[in-house]
Amino acid sequence: MYIGLDIGTSSVKALLIDAAQRPVHAETAPLTLSRPRPSWSEQDPADWLAATDAVMAGLARAAPEAMRAVEGIGIAGQMHGATLLGQDDRPLRPCILWNDGRAADACTALDDREPAFRTLGGNLVMPGFTAPKLEWVRTQEPAVFDQIATVLLPKDYVRLHLTGEKISDMSDAAGTLWLDVARRDWSDRLLSATGLDRGQMPRLVEGIAAGGVLRHELAARWGMGGRVVVAGGGGDNAASACGVGVVAPGAAFLSIGTSGVLFVCTQAFSPNTEGAVHAFCHAVPSLWHQMGVVLSAAASLEWLAGVTGTPASRLAEEAGALPRSPGRAMFAPYLAGERTPHNDATVRAGFVSLDGADDRAVLARAVMEGVAFSMRDCLDALAAAGTRIESVLAVGGGARSPTWLDMMADTLDVPVRLPAEGEIGAAFGAARLGMIAASGATVEEVCVEPAIRRVHAPKAAPAYAEALARWRKLYPFMKEAKT
User: Fold this and answer.
1) What number of other Cβ atoms are within 10 A of residue 344's Cβ?
2) End-to-end CA distance of the chain, in Å?
3) Distance between CA atoms of residues 347 and 279, nearest Å
4) Beta 72-77 vs 234-235: how paired, if at all?
5) Nearest one of 319, 324, 314 to 457, comparing CA atoms
6) Is the dihedral of CA 204, 205, 206, 212 positive or negative?
7) 166-213 residue pLDDT tens
């Protein structure tokens, strides 16, 4: 038996699977965000521990016999969060999360100070990354900065609770901007640029390697019978890739979740900082990945759902009743700024070309198409880095909409494959990593692709290509309009 833990932004999930990778039981505990100021986003690390204890206790109650046979745990989690610990290993302040925008000025300062963030780190210096957050703390909260003994990512703070060890994996560490991504090691040069050193960093392991052993008292509390290995694990997207079998060069998935992600596995470190592509280590050895990110994907449709008082699923159905062709109305989905390819935290969303006869179905289609066009921006940015994608697996809440998947196929002009029902998310990928770490099985044996329910083939790609050219005029307009 194996457990996958996913330390998300809105919840912590625990998934228990058997040796055949069949789900046995799952538990979820909610988390809350704190936004004390505009563009700030924080969480209390104690909430992650309480939620982890709750879901593990839930597994123990629901499946006590299976829990006695648990051999491995894998951990996935939200990336980039700055969890700052003092000498006593207690947090010095709330964790600054991935979707926090306060460090925009710090990004400029770091970029000017150390150009190697783009070469060794392989990524643009963006407010979401961990290093700019520490630069903000150094200048704005110097008393806190001076007390920092260790910086941990969210899932690795939970690991500290589980094992007593300070360890991170390559995929999550690559999202800090302190990793020499090609060498898969901390960079003293990049750490020094933010006034830190590797003594304040966790030890690094590969995602499939052992990253600690569950503390005896916790194993006893949750009814586990023996030694339980905790795998290195991975950042949420790298773990999700393991969950859908995207572990070979060229394999790719499209996630239509709160944010949108186009993830492709690569054989080598291949950055494209000009296109705001993320280039990170994979959670499995000797592989890397590229990633384009849209900050408001399904979140855009959920926003419209809140405004109209209509469930997002209903909006998607109403949009699906319209002809399979691009609409006149267009939407720029920049509710929280944008990552790929614009790296613009301040641009904002908007509709254009509305008509007095337009109804909520038209608005919903415009929102869904706007997200699809943003994902095409990501695809083109990956292509500029030399990466060609032949097809994608679709995951995330938005993948429940056949209409949205049709739009994605037409806009990306590649087949979009929808997996059959089953566990395929970050918790499942983490459980697979836990299985490999504990059993010694290979990545190829464990991280296989899921069965495919259906394939959405491009049918209106030329029309969407024309609409894309019109839509791309929105970003310069929205950028100018915000001032």
Assistant:
1) 19
2) 55
3) 23
4) parallel
5) 324
6) negative
7) 999 999 999 999 999 999 999 999 999 999 999 999 999 999 999 999
In the block, residue with structure tokens 């046995």: 24
Mean pLDDT throughout 384-404?
A: 91
- Helix-, strand-, coil-residue percentages of the chain, each rounded to 5: 40, 20, 40
Q: Which residues are within 8 A (CB) of 294 and not within 5 positions of it... i.e. 6 or more apart?
A: 259, 260, 261, 333, 338, 339, 340, 371, 374, 375, 377, 378
Q: What is the DSSP string of 187-206?
A: -HHHHHHTT--GGGSPEEE-
Give phi and psi for 257, each to the nearest 5.
-110, -155
CA atoms of 84 and 90, how far apart (whole Å): 8
How far is the C-alpha of 157 from the C-alpha of 84, rounded, in Å?
A: 10
Q: 234 - beta bridge partners?
A: 76
* Separation CA 335–CA 173 (nearest Å): 28
Q: Give the DSSP letter of residue 259.
A: S
Give dist(CA 136, CA 115) in Å, integer: 18
Which secondary-structure segment (H or E) carries 16?
A: strand 11-17
Question: Could you give the residue numbers annotated as active site?
Answer: 236
- Among 288, 289, 270, which residue's Cα sits nearest to residue 119? 270
Q: Looking at 153-297, which runs of residues are DSSP E strands?
A: 167-169, 179-180, 185-186, 203-205, 210-213, 229-231, 234-235, 252-256, 260-266, 278-281, 288-294
**35-46: b or e for each residue (b if 16 or more CB lie within 10 Å)?**
eeeebbbbbebe
CA-closest candidate to residue 239, choices 41, 479, 423: 423
For the segment 71-112, what is each residue's pLDDT rounded down to a tens digit? 999 999 999 999 999 999 999 999 999 888 899 899 999 999
Nearest to 151 by CA among 92, 234, 208, 207: 92
Contact 160, 71 (CB under 8 A): no
Q: Which two tokens stand for residue 290?
A: 């590229």
**Alpha-carbon distance 134 to 176, whole Å?**
10
For the segment 300-336, what is each residue's pLDDT rounded down to a tens digit? 999 999 999 999 999 999 999 999 899 999 999 999 8
Find the angle CA(461)-CA(465)-CA(466) to the nearest 5 degrees: 125
At which residue do the structure tokens 């007593």 appear? 164
The encoded tokens of residue 377 equal: 């921006």
Residues 418 and 257: their CA atoms lie apart, in Å, by 14
Distance of CA 477 to the CA centre of its chain: 29
The span from the CA of 85 to the CA of 150, in Å, is 5
Task: Assess contact for 382 and 264: CB atoms under 8 A.
Answer: yes
pTM: 0.90
